[in-house]
Amino acid sequence: MIVLGLWTLYGVSLGLNSYFVRASLGRPIPFEISISLELLYTTLWALLTPVIVLLARRFPITKQTWHTGVAVQIAGLICLGMAQKLLWELLGRMVAPTFFGPLNLKTLVPTLAATMDTAAMLYLFVVASTYAVSYYKSAKEQELRASRLEGQLMQSQLMALKAQLHPHFLFNTLNTISALVREEPEAAERMIARLSDLLRSSLENVGAQEVSLRKELDLVQRYLDIQQVRFEDRLRVNFEIDPGTLDAVVPNLLLQPLVENAIRHGLADRLEGGELAISAHRMNGSLRLAVRDNGCGLPGDSMREGVGLSNTRARLRQLYGDAQEIELRNLPPGGAEVIVTIPFHGSPSTTAAG
Known about the structure:
Layout: H1 2-24, H2 31-58, H3 66-95, H4 97-100, H5 105-114, H6 116-164, H7 167-183, H8 185-204, E1 210-212, H9 213-231, E2 235-241, E3 249-251, H10 255-267, E4 274-283, E5 286-293, H11 307-320, E6 325-330, E7 336-343
Parallel strand pairs: 2-4
Antiparallel strand pairs: 1-3, 4-5, 5-7, 6-7
Helix pairs in contact: 1-2, 2-3, 2-6, 3-6, 6-11, 7-8, 8-9, 9-10
């Protein structure tokens, strides 16, 4: 209705302009004929507008597809512009036969071609308006998406800090430090420094949506340094990192909660401890990250996700759409594995959330 209203308004303005111009030149026509003919002209364009919009959206002119887009729009301009003018010539004779005179097929094609400049202007106006509306909607969607990401990022950071400041975690860490103070004061100092470094690193990239895998692994290593002092020889950690992936970007605070879950739910209750493996590999245009343990695995067949993993899945979906995947599974020998696949990008983004 808005489109029809705009074309109608344009038609009325054309009719008024045509009426007064012809009157000033000494070639007046009835007012109602002038308005009717111009409204017929713009109504035909209003009926063709959905087709033009469809072509503009289906064949956009972008850096990758401009050849096809330009070719389709030129073809659309010629076909639709000629069709509109032809219909106006035919229907106009029904509205005002005396104004047009008899139909001359020999002069019809030259007449149609001569008016293509006006048709081109109106056609391109519709195409440009379509792109402008699309870009506006895209900008609003990105703004909304950024707002959602900000909330999810803050939630993830708070959850990570909550896990690190969890009384049970702090109790075990401080208890280990207390035991080392008398017997191994240097080790106790290292433990305190590692705890301080871990908390400092957690806050270093507050607001960043993505960081390099190198930085993410550094945070994980600081966390594991504390856990390995606590578990001593019962926790064995293997890093299987492709060097070519270290500069790839990953969501901030992605791996540390996954590692923390693997230790807490998979290995902490085992007297003999276990192994934790963290891997990163490039597969075609994707980055494949995995955290696996040889612990007790996930109970039951439901594979229910906790809040942390659900939040991670939602963040990945917001950041990468359908180009991401997260899989949680039990391993046949025992243990569990979380696999995250995201697009591979080599330049870290430090866009702040706030």
